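Researcher: Next entry in the queue.
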Amino acid sequence: MTKPPSFIARIKQTITGTIVANNIVDVRPQVTNVVKEIHIKEGQEVKKGQLLFTLDDRNDRANYDKAKAVADDAQRQLQRAKELVAQNFISKAGLDTAEANAKSAAASARAAEVQLSFDYIRAPIDGRAGIINVFPGSLVAPGNIVTTASSSTATTALGAMVTITQLDPINVQFIVGEDSIPLLMQSDPNSLKVAVSVGDQQTQTFEGKVLVIDNQVDPAIGAVRVKAQIANDKRLLLPGQFARVKLEANTLKDAILVPSQAVVINPRGRFIYVVGAEDKVSLKPIKVSYEYQGKAAITGVEVGERVVIEGKQNLRPGTKIRESKSAAAQKPAEAPKPESKPADKK
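Model: Structure for this entry, 346 residues:
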């Protein structure tokens, strides 16, 4: 038997993780062409839709102008055909042909306009531009290869023209062992908070909240991935940094903590044996708030009530029991590694 104490328990774990970008895009061309002009500087903050690079657009602009002229002429021919049909100078078939020609020419003009737009490469997201891997005159092509000039060699193969990284907000990714997953799943999602520190700056922390818990456990490491988001308006955190993460999984006020083995489970619910007058036991219904590392936080019993820890499988309500010496010598149950303190007495 034991007398469960009351705690204000802040369930925390310290985990290692990695700072990751909330959004990151490698900017690549959609056409094979030569870089004509670069409109940004390395390390510059850019906005979504901002012009980054202009490619040589002379050929594509000429094709667009030609297609647009043909489309405009086809539209005029269509208008003229409508007037002639109204005056019975041409047949309905002639009008149908004019309409088809106008639609075809308009579609060709739109296609040429899209092709021309590929010569103007714009930022797909807000963020900070990284190292620019091309120069005016560099030949770029769709796919993973960008061919650029170099001071030491004639050409250099690179992965992207530039990479844009969103730094605010920023994320931290870490893993939680599968033995701690029940604690996460039983917690209120709004209570899952993190405090993150990086490098040797143990005194400076960045607070955030959990965004997502992965939907499966990685069997190779026996853990689940968790991602949290942090405000980074001063740009002090960068993707790839090693991070120390303090995960606050739950906060329980006046939590009654007992060993999990004291909980009786049957088809009617969860119960616990409490010892009353004349050392007789009774079965008391309880609600388990969470279970973690062999401890259970429960409601339904009062602080100081004696509960049965061992031998409950042989008990029936009304049974008179005798407390063993080993149980009497046990200390009250303590919180499982949470940051905790005894509840204030009033």
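Model: The first strand starts at residue 6 and ends at 20.
Researcher: Noted, moving on.
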